Amino acid sequence: MSGPLLEVRSLTVSYGGDSVAVDGVDLVVGEGEVCLVLGANGAGKTSLLRGIGGFAASETGRVRGGRVRFDGADVTGLSPRAMAKRGLVLVPEEAKVFASLTVEENLRAVPMAGGRAARRALVHEVTSMFPTLAQRMGLLAGQLSGGERQLLGIARSLLLKPRLLMVDEASLGLSPIAVETVFDMLRSVVASWGTTLLVVEQNVRAAQSVSDHAYVLETGSVVLSGPAREVLGSERVRQTYLGLET
Amino acid sequence: MLTLLLGALTLSAIYALVGFAWVLLRRTNGILNLATGAQLALGAFIFNQFATSWGLPWPVVVLGSLATIAAIGAATHWIVFRKLAGQPEFALVVATLGLASALKGVSSLTWGTEARVMREPVPSQVITFGDGVSTTFYGLCGLGAAVLVFAAAHTFFRFSSVGIRMRAAAENPVLASQGGVAVDWVYVLGWAMALTAAAVAGIMYAYQTALSFHGVEALGMRGLAPALVGGLTSIRGVIPGALLVGLAETFGTKFFGGPVQDVAAWIVILVVLLIRPQGLFGDKQVQRV
Amino acid sequence: MTTGSIDVAADVRRRLLGRGALLALICLLPVVLRDYQLSLVTTALIAALGALALTLVTGFVGLVTAGNSALLALGAYGAAIGAVQLELPFLVVLAGSVLVGAVVGLLAGLPALRVSGIYLAIATLAMHFILIFVFNEYQTRAVGSAGFFLPTASIGGLTIDTAIKWYVVLVLVVLATWRLVENLKKSKFGRAWMLIRDTPLAAASQGISLPAYKLAAFVLSSAIISMSGTFLAYFQQAVYIESFTLELAIQYIAMIIIGGMGSSGGAIAGACFVVLLPPMLSRAIALLPSDAVVAGFLQQNLGDFQLIIYGTLVVVFLIWRPDGLAGLGRRLAALRVKGAR
Question: Domain residue spans in chain C?
């Protein structure tokens, strides 16, 4: 094992035109770590995750500069599918489930690796981690609550056996109880699967309990980074992200 | 009267197959395929090449021609539409028009434009039930083919993993790709399935009338009507749509004369656009921007 | 004129130079070309009217219409009815066809554009098949399959009966239409149209009524295409249904794709290319040894090759050069400027 699991160097992302959404970001996540990216709306958090996880050809977003290395290999600009196959999996912020498919079909839509027995075992393992979903297998995903959708999104991505799971705004629009459930789930994924996590959040309270390392993003650039405890304890973060809540 | 209704039903079966092709591409690949007519004609002529010109044994004819047509569908995605990914919707529609023109030229160059009679597996005959209600053998074949295709499609999209992945990619291709689905292969499959269904319709229609490029191409274009009535993206909606168009065309021709056949479907389209553009049986609201 | 900066002066000089060259070309063509060749150019100019109209609706707004051929037929049959059946003067017929084109455009566009842009393709397709059906029935009943023969056009006692007269008339009409399209492009309408094409959500959030603006573009373009159909009918002095196919509609789309979507100069260039390609191909084939089997085959199937060439060019340009010949020209010019420095 040489070097960190994910290494991002001066990554620049743009959606056409001259303006850039992510401007020369450096970011490193070690194997088994939980990394938190903080930032206000429009700071470029989602674009950062998309830049790492890859854009589809049909999208306007592109990586304009910099490098993404995953597990020692250069993966810059690969398609989302290629990233997912390598174990770099993203749970996006909006539309994380297929609303017109049932819960069961959402899970079946994931092409899993391995033989039939291995696949069945994996589905069993994942569904047993999500008892609420197990009760709603026949329901359309569009009829689920926000928290249940988040769980289904995470369950779907676990079927891909991710080595690095990127979760975009896991707590957005959820009730405090639902937020707790989602982060409990993430914690247990880290604990039992050894998955590395890269989480984008505005809700610092929810995220601080799981994080080892933190980055603060403003207008597309990293303005602060370090061990989570230090970053979250800094004056800047306390004022901007915790000030309103305390 | 009952004979007429039965005629409308067998015609509807053909329309259901063509409508299926329109809807499948619109829904899965996100393309309003104005080349459907030309592609349907191409499919029918390829079948005729295997069946009549080469006179091959029937199993070879069926498998060989359908495989060729599916391969052409797959190539359509790899060569043309994969390269247009990310272009605005209207550019895709314009590309289908360009394709329609080119395919028509190729077909006319290869097979000419005059009508042909296809080699038949069994002689065409009129089948009569009880009180003088009659239809043709090939009319019933068309009906059978439509039932078969729709039942197969239903099973495929409901129960097979590939079918479920196709539905997922149709709803949100980016999310599907993030979830490890090979979206390009979904599109390839969409083209192959749509062209095959269209070709089956063209072959059945040619057996009931005659094989002429103009005739089957026009049929392929008119198949937009059942698709639109059904809401353009609903496969189930195609069935009532096809019945409506089949009835309109049969009775329009009966009361106003033969040439009405060419326009009945288009009048249905105008009326639907006027009163309910999102389709009479559609299952989703059309976006308004 | 501003001469504040050198760039502006250079720009003005280049513009004047371009206009001078264009004027020289317009004056030179009738001198050097024979009547038959000049008629070909006139046909290209009539096509350019349609291409300019399509630039409005497809180039600026990003809508697809398959109704070009039907609208041409509308203008042509309008001319046949006006000139032959009603014996109206040329200018009255012309004005009538503009009006009828606008009304038909409104009727076809109104229901479709309430929903979304893509529905215009469907509505115009329906319009194509229904109008062609109606004109076919009308022609069969009125005169039979040979079609209509039109009298010579005349404007206030001046008959337009020679190739050069037609050339002059159409040069003027095309220049006026070009001017109209360019002015619209720079106007409030043009800016709104292009905003609708590029970012419909942004346009809607600025309070632009998408259906109304889309409809305006389509109605105007329908009126112009109908007018060009009337010119075509009088110019050829014949109208028959077989010439108005769906492939003709695709040819017009090919003009603006090849020329470069959204560029009016490109539309005219594309029209010239599409109209002049068949006679040029014909000439090229004639240069082959006449006993060659290939030459005979090519000559006999010229129509099919046209379909293949236009269709393929549309797809190829969409994939490789969405900005068409106009974009290619701009690129070359930029290279030259760079080289000169």
Answer: 30-340
B98 and C137: CB-CB below 8 Å? no
**Quick check: is B239 in a domain?**
yes
Q: What is the pLDDT of residues A46-88, one digit of tens each?
A: 999 999 999 998 888 889 989 999 998 999 989 999 999 999 9
Alpha-carbon distance C180 to A100, whole Å?
A: 48
Nearest partner of A153 among A125, A188, A185, judged by Cα? A185
Cα–Cα dist B240/B85, whole Å: 33
C14/A5: higher pLDDT: A5
Residues of chain B positioned with their CB less than 8 A from the CB of A98: 167-168, 171-172, 175-176
* CATH number of the structural domain C30-340: 1.10.3470
Which DSSP symbol is given to C5? S
Asked if A80's CB is within 8 angstroms of B181's CB, the reply is: no
- Residues of chain B with pLDDT below 50 are 285-289
Task: Compute the nearest-CA separation of C28 from chain B (Å).
Answer: 35
Quote the distance between the C-alpha of residue C309 and its chain's center.
18
Place of tokens 């069945």: A120
Question: Which contacts (CB < 8 Å, 24+ apart) does range C183-189 have?
Answer: C184/C56, C184/C60, C185/C60, C185/C264, C189/C213, C189/C216, C189/C217
- Which residues from chain A sit within 8 angstroms of residue B82, using beta carbons? 57
Q: How far apart are CA B136 and CA B10, in angstroms?
A: 9
> Is the CB of residue B117 less than 8 Å away from at least one CB of chain A?
no
Give the tens place of pLDDT for each residue, B128-155: 887 778 888 899 999 999 999 999 999 9
Which range marks the domain in which residue B34 is found?
2-275
In a domain, B204, yes or no: yes
B58 membership: H or E segment, kind and range: helix B58-75
Instruction: Please report, for the domain that includes residue B238, its CATH number.
Output: 1.10.3470
Say what the ipTM of the complex is: 0.92
- The alpha carbon of residue A234 is apart from the nearest alpha carbon of chain B, in Å, by 35
Closest Cβ–Cβ partner in B85, B178, B181 for A111: B181
> B261 CB near a chain C CB, below 8 Å?
no
C327-337 average pLDDT score: 79
